[in-house]
Amino acid sequence: MFFVDTIELEGLGNRSYLAGGESAAVAVDPPRDVDQVLAAAARRGVRISHVVETHVHNDYVTGGLELARITGARYLVPAGANVAFARVPVADGDTADIDRGSEVTLTAIATPGHTPHHTSYALHEAGRPVAVFTGGSLLIGTVGRPDLVEPRLTEQLARAQHASARRLASALPDETAVLPTHGFGSFCSSAQSEGERTTIGKEKSANTALTTDVETFVEDLLAGLEDVPAYYAHMGPVNAVGPTPLDLTPPARADAAEIATRLAAGEWVVDLRNRVAFAEGHVAGSFNFEADGKLATYLAWLIPWGKPVTLLAESAEQLADAQRELVRVGIDRPAAAATGTPATWLPDGMTPGSFPRSTFAGLAAQRKADAVVLDVRRDSERADGWIEGSVHIPLHELHGRLGEVPRGTVWVHCAGGMRAAIAASLLDAVGRDVVAVDDGFDAATDAGLSLTTG
Q: Distance (Å, rounded) from C-alpha 449 to C-alpha 17?
């Protein structure tokens, strides 16, 4: 009897899989922290006989090479991928015996589109297709974005996505489970997926690649593409060369004097506590990226690549979790770290920084002539409506455009509060008077604020 276990990477919006039979299994698109995969195999009592990649990933550092080294598994990578390490090159139609006793096999299906070399893998039990690992090809209701490789190839790859989705739909039975890597919040997805599970049959009636003609599909797909997270530029090259083994040993501990020194040197000091605690009191000059938010995505997106980062956490557990999440996107070793509260992170006699939080109702009640409303949502979010007179700078651009924020008290908002808190911390760090609007954007209309669309 076959099994498929899902390994969620919630912060990055991705999934990896472990699938197999009674004694052996394959790991699909494993994360860099491979101990999760090893633990899943141990729970099943199986050995990992194969590790496969659907493509060279652009959004996270793979653990495939290290997992294959640890387990002795065969490392299957699409033959068209230009990589610098030894692997088993996989071509369209190649098969692999995953667990002979359970008659579990894997068949490679060329599905270019997300990348030119992208490959999906159909899982068979006794010759019957039961699931297909689709990576960044066919997702739930959408497909992976085609613009991460080279601008000149984007339209070509968009057309390939349409063809690849249709190939999967025609080659596999309707009841086949579709198991993508992207689409659960990942910016590798061309649109946000709806739902947690799907099949080939469901996608035939719901996926735009399968319900629209190629010209309409390509036009809509390209029109809907948004900015690519800046750190993506570093992920592909790291994965092509072969990532180094991860190191999750605790970083060096920083006292108050060292934290102050690092801030004075222009390094990033990142407070991982929740946004309420940060607003109430923090080390002046530090930035707030909540550990429970999309830490890896937004910190890696905003920080100048290679800039030393010191992490401030309320507990050793929070620090360890953050360190684990950051290594998945290549932020390997924090320069230093500290746990506790601002009282222990500040030199004697120094007062913590703080700023107020409010709601859209508070904004409506207190809005004055010198108040600046700053919207840090993405372009696609703002297109659906914005507060009349507000300034728009997407969060991922704000650090480089702080000088464009008009004078006055800045009321900063996003769609729900998390990104507004990051933005508020960036503004507070350069001495701006700021109010973080910690509220859902739907409340803006209820508060009586005038919205504009266009």
A: 46
